[in-house]
Specification:
With 90 residues, the protein is an alpha+beta fold. 21% of the residues lie in helices and 23% in strands. The protein is built from two helices and three strands; from the N terminus they run ααβββ. It has a three-stranded antiparallel β-sheet with strand order 1-3-2, with no helix packed on it. 1% of the residues are buried.
Length: 90
């Protein structure tokens, strides 16, 4: 009931959804998130970092976007996993 699946990324539709939302909106997946970053739709970025390095694969963040971030929360887990939450400045 709280999930909406779109076939095409439409920044205007996302802006309208954000304006009328009563809760946070999550965007998942590297490709979809890259579109949201480029369109200036991201207010907060939550990252989970695992203590494992795996070469190759998809980029987690877009290469052609630069944003100033402010750390708002951090947690460290016994497994070595780290949670970082950033607010996008400006």
């Amino acid at each position: 009931a709280r999930t909406r699946i779109e076939r095409v990324f439409d920044p205007l539709a996302i802006r309208e959804l954000k304006a009328s939302a009563t809760r946070d909106i999550s965007i998942g997946g590297a490709n979809l998130a890259a579109h949201a970053f480029r369109a200036g739709l991201v207010d907060r970025c939550d990252l989970f970092l695992a203590p494992i390095i795996v070469g190759g694969g998809k980029r987690g963040l877009p290469a052609d976007v630069r944003l100033a971030l402010e750390l708002t929360d951090q947690r460290r887990f016994g497994s070595g996993m780290v949670y970082l939450s950033y607010r996008v400045r400006g």
